[in-house]
Amino acid sequence: MAIDSLVLGAGQEVGKSCVVVSINGKRIMFDCGMHMGYTDSRRYPDFSLISNTGDFDNALTCVVVTHFHLDHIGALPYFTEVCGYKGPIYMTYPTKALAPLMLEDYRKNMDRRGEDEQFTSDHITECMKKVIPVDLKQTVQVDKDLQIRAYYAGHVIGAAMFYAKVGDAAMVYTGDYNMTPDRHLGAAQIDRLQLDLVITESTYATTIRDSRYGREREFLKAVHTCIAAGGKVLIPTFALGRAQELCILLEDYWERMNLKVPIYFSAGLTIQANMYYKMLINWTSQKIKETYATRNAFDFKNVRNFDRSLINAPGPCVLFATPGMIVGGFSLEVFMQWAPSEMNLVTLPGYCVAGTIGHKLMSGKPTKIDLDKDTQIDVRCQIHQLSFSPHTDAKGIMDLVKFLSPKHAILVHGEKPKMATLKERIQSELGIPCYCPANNETVTVPSTHYVKADASETFIRSCLNPNFKFSTYSSVDKSYLDSKYSKAASGLQVSDERVAEGILVVEKGKKAKVIHQDELLLMLGDKKHEVQFAYCFPMHTERLQKTRTEELPSADTLLCDLDKCTLINQLSMKLSNELSDANILDLGEQLQVESFRVSICSKNSCPHRLSHSVHNDSESVFLCCHWSLRDEKLAWKIISIMKSSSPHTT
Amino acid sequence: MKFTCLSKGGGFHFSPCHMLNVSGFRILLDCPLDLSSLALFSPVPVAHQAHESLDTDSVIRKKQKIEKTLDANDLVHAEPWYKTVKNLHLWDASFIDVVLISSPMGMLGLPFLTRTRDFSAKIYVTEASARIGQLLMEDLVSMHMELRQFYGPEDSCFPQWMRWEELEVLPSELRKIALGKDCEELGAWMPLYSAVDVKDCMRKVQTLKYAEEACYNGTLIVKAFSSGLEIGTCNWTINGPKKNIAYISSSIFVSMHAMDFDFLGLRGNDLIIYSDFSSLDKNMENDDTYFDPVTSSSGRDDVSNLEEMAASLLKDDESAEEIEKLVFICACALDSVRVGGSVLVPIDRLGVVLCLLEQMSLLLESSSLKVPIYIISSVAEELLAFTNIIPEWVCKQRQEKLFSGEPLFAHVKLIKERKIHVFPAVHSPELLTNWQEPCVVFCPNWSLRLGPVVHLLRHWCSDPNSLLVLESGVDADIALLPFKPMAMKVLQCSFLSGLSLQKVQPLLKILQPKLVLFPKDLSCKIQISEANMIFLFSENETLRIPSSKESTDIDIATDLASKFRWKTFKQETITRLEGELFMDHGKHRLLSGFQPANSKQQRPLVHWGSPDVKVLLTELSKMGISGTIKQVTDDAKSEDDAKSENAAAIIDIHDPEKALIDVRETDHIKISIQIIHGREFILYT
């Protein structure tokens, strides 16, 4: 049994996340993203590796999408509508609600840039119809054998880590996650699960971040200084996630500082997104969640719609504009207007793809940016880089992997050299085998498999009850040999072996059965037999002879009870002297040590008596011993003690 | 497993209540309050003085047992107490391990339980039910506090009306409410819990999503599946190592507000506890409809395809019928408003109210009448806001609204447009400034004894143009007693509150349980196919359900299994087990564990089978031991009865030493071999 993970995207890179995992005959595609850095065929995962005939419905059991970012969902409409996958697709409620906005926005941008259209608006609608929404922690039975479950991942609203289980094999695919809560989202949360494999993102494989608080204050200070001086602040950001987070931050600050400077949202998109956020408030952090009844935290008081005419209106303002990396659209339009004034401020997201204006602004401080051959922008405005990210840092990744303690781990969604460092850490610090495959590589790890059996009621019940066994042991500990403490090494050992009383029975064509040892014979339809030993030997006692002579001849063959008892008693004392650790039971007419019993034989011809040896001696007393096989050694020891003791008693 | 039905409840607001014993755990299913018995009490503003003056007269009349028609003075004038499930107090609350709540109504009695000392059960409720239930309880407490101001604090813990003399003179209808049919329910009355109790109770509740697995004590896995009755209501599955149980509470296949009845989630369970008593109330009215041919036709055998059957259950006109009802209510309301009367809707079914709000405002808009809709309740604002942030709990059509970016329920928009006004109480200043008549008012409580409805009903009861919309199931005669004479029109409307009986049979066919626990009261009205073994239950009767599974499943880790030393026999291969047994998520797992090194030596050997004497002899001779068989037909020396002559044999050993092997079968089918002086001996069996 094995789990095969075919990495179609985000292998040793960031972008087009897509991993196809085969567990016990089920095949799940986790994420179906696109790469923002390419415009050719490399932008999508190579779906032909899943099925070269293009029969994806039979090749895949289901598709699971973790969140609505394009590098996780961008290729989905292409996969379902163009490639023709018709099977089930799972994502959380917020992802299903917000993904169309993202996809539509991307499609429009593609259009605007004059690229050939990969999918249409109708494709997005049709694709989303196939999506089955899931709630967090809800156990979804995809088919008879496959179970999936979503766990809160933080990152963006609706982001989830997915747990998948087929038979006894189980795994978790994290998607992107954040282990620390931010302004509007909580931290990732997952149960302690028994896992064979964890596939985790590793964007910040080596970075350890300090507190958000300082970085937030830095941002607010930069914004405040700018508007206090009458400048305009441009916050190029995507409509979903970051915009809401910063907005909550600003709203809070505005309230505290009693600021009246307007905050604008560039397009209807963000306003529309806020509508979704209001309904999905249950997916935000606890603190924000609690505001639903009084004033929904996404009902921004200071936020207004922006109009083009306001671009050059006098006075300070804060503007959220899309897209985030200033690749075009409205944010570029505004940037061109505002960049030449040193009073203004542009904040940039933490990560910008190479080739975008955002990237150029981040690398050094250019004074001029060439937009194309004819256009050149004077950049005199201040630039502030936002350094908070919705991704977990290295410590968070280590914490999660340690918490889940899977048997194997795979790293995706990161930069190759950093991933290698993290891989080493996971292997050395946590002792978990770790892999970071490149795109189109397959990693195979073994999976858990249990042997199924039926257990009988008796066995289960006997396992519920304590079954302590005490035994003495004397360990030959060499370090103590020469010292006087050598005796202390021996002691009482307590064992509680309940399971050892069970017996596993396998019969052809039948399910294996676990039964209690007492039931075995019943089940086999056979009879138990016991191996018992008996030995009857004579013992001479002077004292007995004396008493015998005083008695009447008729009572000659009978020993009186009193005599029997005294003899037994004497033997008992003798034995207890010799065998210090044995449990000797004196039952009056017989002695018992474990299964060994000895009594005085009253029969004339005991079958266990070796008749020839002591036939002539009528004065001797016969001791009849019985024991079972397991106490054989003990029995012979006792017999030899008794034999040797008899001369002394006389 | 043991099952006891504590109460079959009564209607939508009073859920059934059961006690279940599974795998050694005691599980309480629901803990409701019987609010209908509030009818016993008089809402405050009734003419109290009149009662005093007539006192002697009425007492004489009552003593003479002359039954007259009830009037408002017969009601109990005291701070109301609340009636819990009558049989629940017979059980020790501290012995309950798990409480499963299937609806907001089913948790109204929970604070009584959670505040008892030593109560330590784990309470599982769906997230939405917990929130709505909490709001209902808070509302109940606040309405009660308002009422209490009129009566002042109770000075003794034993109220006057509970004295036997007082109870005896109650008219028979009211006495039935107070004491129950068999005069055994007096112990069920409790003074209401406080707001602190509610808070404490909510702290002890563990909330779940639909289909979220909750594991109790590593043994039981409980899961909630949507029942469709109301937002957040659910049916439960309880999976233990030996039992798979599905509990079906009142369910509705297709709902207009809540997520549909997720019956497919209940598949694969051996035992079904059917606890939907809703058809019991309905059948009083039209008994004949339930034996119609639909039962046989939908239960046809040729509908073998499961999906087809499931689809046929979901495709039904019940929801259409419900919409018609709502439209009818709105039409009646419109008629009243047209002639200048107001409409009072004391309905406490969240889903129905939300749908009515949408319908009503639509109709009022189209009729171009400027009539305001008021919602008066201390928790209305929060409740309405809450219903709009729970897309995961509502029906498909409303989920679609989320995906297209519209609010789930129309009231959000209507409140913004100021077509619906929400006030916390009748005396809130915003209400006084906004108030205009005619109007439509939604407010609690359906019992007509608590809350804003009392004031408004007194205000409008003499207006023949006004309309009161009541739920059916309310005993209108007693409920309206304090407001008589009533000139107001009364519309009593029944809403769908459970499965119809003709769907039970096809449902069971899909779920394919081995056993069904079915209410005795319903069994006469329905035929359930013989395929399922049926146990009928009635109130306060404990049923013992035999275990359906003989053995328990056990998982053995492969690495451990590969280490076993096997021994092969004719048919079977056996091995002694090792490792440690764990219980995790309701599953027994055998994993390799710590093992003392010397364990194998101590293990006793088990021998079985009857040894063949001749084989034994040849084996012995191979080892250089020789002997002869001395066949003994009658085991004379044995003190046991001679039942075993056939197998008895003695082998004489002469070489190397003298010994004797005695093979015999004792009475207890035990074969003993007795050897004398046979020191170095190995036995083959």
From TrEMBL, chain A:
<dbReference type="InterPro" id="IPR036866">
    <property type="entry name" value="RibonucZ/Hydroxyglut_hydro"/>
</dbReference>
<protein>
    <submittedName>
        <fullName>Cleavage and polyadenylation specificity factor subunit 3-II isoform X1</fullName>
    </submittedName>
</protein>
<dbReference type="InterPro" id="IPR041897">
    <property type="entry name" value="INTS11-like_MBL-fold"/>
</dbReference>
<dbReference type="Pfam" id="PF16661">
    <property type="entry name" value="Lactamase_B_6"/>
</dbReference>
<keyword id="KW-0539">Nucleus</keyword>
<feature type="domain" description="Beta-Casp">
    <location>
        <begin position="243"/>
        <end position="361"/>
    </location>
</feature>
<dbReference type="GO" id="GO:0004521">
    <property type="term" value="F:RNA endonuclease activity"/>
</dbReference>
<keyword id="KW-0378">Hydrolase</keyword>
<dbReference type="GO" id="GO:0016180">
    <property type="term" value="P:snRNA processing"/>
</dbReference>
<dbReference type="Pfam" id="PF10996">
    <property type="entry name" value="Beta-Casp"/>
</dbReference>
<dbReference type="InterPro" id="IPR011108">
    <property type="entry name" value="RMMBL"/>
</dbReference>
<dbReference type="InterPro" id="IPR001279">
    <property type="entry name" value="Metallo-B-lactamas"/>
</dbReference>
<dbReference type="GO" id="GO:0005634">
    <property type="term" value="C:nucleus"/>
</dbReference>
<dbReference type="Pfam" id="PF07521">
    <property type="entry name" value="RMMBL"/>
</dbReference>
<comment type="similarity">
    <text>Belongs to the metallo-beta-lactamase superfamily. RNA-metabolizing metallo-beta-lactamase-like family. INTS11 subfamily.</text>
</comment>
<feature type="domain" description="Metallo-beta-lactamase">
    <location>
        <begin position="15"/>
        <end position="231"/>
    </location>
</feature>
<dbReference type="InterPro" id="IPR050698">
    <property type="entry name" value="MBL"/>
</dbReference>
<dbReference type="GO" id="GO:0016787">
    <property type="term" value="F:hydrolase activity"/>
</dbReference>
<dbReference type="InterPro" id="IPR022712">
    <property type="entry name" value="Beta_Casp"/>
</dbReference>
From TrEMBL, chain B:
<dbReference type="Pfam" id="PF10996">
    <property type="entry name" value="Beta-Casp"/>
</dbReference>
<protein>
    <submittedName>
        <fullName>Integrator complex subunit 9 isoform X2</fullName>
    </submittedName>
</protein>
<dbReference type="GO" id="GO:0034472">
    <property type="term" value="P:snRNA 3'-end processing"/>
</dbReference>
<dbReference type="GO" id="GO:0032039">
    <property type="term" value="C:integrator complex"/>
</dbReference>
<dbReference type="InterPro" id="IPR036866">
    <property type="entry name" value="RibonucZ/Hydroxyglut_hydro"/>
</dbReference>
<dbReference type="InterPro" id="IPR027074">
    <property type="entry name" value="Integrator_9su"/>
</dbReference>
<dbReference type="InterPro" id="IPR022712">
    <property type="entry name" value="Beta_Casp"/>
</dbReference>
<keyword id="KW-0963">Cytoplasm</keyword>
<keyword id="KW-0539">Nucleus</keyword>
<dbReference type="GO" id="GO:0005737">
    <property type="term" value="C:cytoplasm"/>
</dbReference>
<feature type="domain" description="Beta-Casp">
    <location>
        <begin position="353"/>
        <end position="478"/>
    </location>
</feature>
